[in-house]
Recover the amino acids of this structure.
């Protein structure tokens, strides 16, 4: 992530409530996991930490090998990794489909290929790391649904990758949005996403975030 001042993010000016997926995962009574990549993981983590039903949201890397699952290697753009967030959620409170709806609506711009302003490179690609075949099917059908409805002026370029392990990022990346709310990058690129979530998904928004440090304290 660059730390220079940038213009307001898409979430600040263009975020809209997209249609909900017509297909979702079957009901479950046990916690589930989703892994989503949509640019800098600080903002994506922050969005889902403020989403009701999310038990934990961990910033990290997915898509590449274990030995390159670190910020230095990922930043090169050649590691195969994307900055990602592993979301553990209670499906009795929030469904996988709702998480995808929020992901496409406010967490990032899924029409930007290998970038999220002001960051560029394959490490910032829009990717859903499906944890099983059911998630893969739901995600694929939702992307097709959004493209068919032409909800964006450009096609959704989000890819789906399966069988790719998730690796947590360094401690200093965890809870970054909450810990550094005055950092210029956060102010201009990520806090607008939280405001968009609060405004557009009020029923799914919670003010107190589910922080990684709090989850660790209860382990």
């Amino acid at each position: 992530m660059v730390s220079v001042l940038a213009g307001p993010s898409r979430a600040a000016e263009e975020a809209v409530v997209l249609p909900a997926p017509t297909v979702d995962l079957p009901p479950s009574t046990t916690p589930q996991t989703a892994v989503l990549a949509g640019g800098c993981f600080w903002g994506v983590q922050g969005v889902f930490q403020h989403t009701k039903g999310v038990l934990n949201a961990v910033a990290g890397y997915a898509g590449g090998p274990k030995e390159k699952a670190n910020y230095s290697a990922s930043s090169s753009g050649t590691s195969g990794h994307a900055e990602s967030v592993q979301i553990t959620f209670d499906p009795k409170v929030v469904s996988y489909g709702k998480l995808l709806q929020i992901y496409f609506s406010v967490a990032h711009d899924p029409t930007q290929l290998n970038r999220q302003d002001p960051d560029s490179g394959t490490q910032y690609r829009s990717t859903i790391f499906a944890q099983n075949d059911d998630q893969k099917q739901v995600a694929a059908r939702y992307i097709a649904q959004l493209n068919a409805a032409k909800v964006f002026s450009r096609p959704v370029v989000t890819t789906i990758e399966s069988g790719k392990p998730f690796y947590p990022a360094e401690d200093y990346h965890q809870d970054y949005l909450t810990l550094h709310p005055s950092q210029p990058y956060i102010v201009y690129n990520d806090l607008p996403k939280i405001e968009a979530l609060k405004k557009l998904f009020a029923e799914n928004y919670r003010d107190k975030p589910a922080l990684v440090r709090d989850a660790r304290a209860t382990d």
In short: Residues 2-13 have pLDDT under 50 and may be disordered. The domain at 10-209 is CATH 3.30.1060.10 (Peptide Methionine Sulfoxide Reductase; Chain A).
